[in-house]
Amino acid sequence: MRQAEPILQIENLVLSFGTGDAALPVLQNISLEVQRGEFLVLLGPSGCGKSTLLNLAAGMLKPTSGELRYAGEPLTGVNRGAGYLTQDDTLLPWRTVEGNIGIALELKYHADAGGRKAELVRSYIELVGLKGFEQYHPARLSGGMRKRVALARTLIYDPALLLMDEPFGALDAQLKIVMQNELLRLWERSGKTVVFVTHDLAEALVLADRVAVFSKRPGTIKDIVTIDLPRPRNATGIHGLPRYGELYSELWKLLEGSIEETPVVAER
Fold first, then answer.
1. What number of other Cβ atoms are within 10 A of residue 49's Cβ?
2. Per-residue model confidence (pLDDT) at position 115
3. How many angstroms separate the Cα of 92 from the Cα of each of 98, 101, 239, 246?
4. Tens digits of per-residue pLDDT, 30-57?
5. 113 and 38 within one domain
6. Which domain holds residue 111?
7. CATH number, domain with residue 181
8. Residue 25 in contact with residue 218, Cβ under 8 Å?
9. At what angle do helices 143-155 and 173-190 cross, to 10 degrees?
10. Could you tell me if 173 and 256 lie in one domain?
């Protein structure tokens, strides 16, 4: 962890969908601080409210009760300091790589970013390893390349906080490892704060400084585990460490009581 200054503070947060007898409890008594520069992973079974918590941090939902602060201020609307990378890359099929990445600047500045748009887009294309593919449309890109475009589009407007909702969940095992290493490389260079949702224990251990383990719905935080594996990390290089096995067992013990056949509610 890089600094001891929270960028996101959540206190006694409760969220239910609906009211009265029809209310569906989703999150219950969530208290959490996310430090600046930290890589925090939210780990838990499907339907436990992990993605819902990201939506709250993005300002897309309001809690039923409790408090949520960003950079020390109450979060009362859309969180302009956060970038959100979802499971779907949501690329515009009629735009090229260059055009998809550049749209973030168009939305932020309503112009061409003070004449620096083309320069910024080129630099982020190089940053994610897509030089030479500037004029390709999404249909001509592999799944991993599309994820790189989506990541560059999120990074280019320089959010302090990255919210990532299982962005690599649909990728095959080999490509997932490539993208995990790519994300680690970019995060280590940028110093940004990341809150990353997954249900994959191995992915959590590869990426995280800390892992917040959720119970089944209504989601509560059962424990927060510090991942004291050395950095920099490589997704293929840490599995043989004795400490990796110990941490994996610790996370699994926290999870196993929550993984059972229960009705799954779509997270919002």
1. 27
2. 61
3. 11, 10, 37, 43
4. 999 999 999 999 999 988 999 999 999 9
5. no
6. 89-158
7. 3.40.50.300
8. yes
9. 20
10. yes
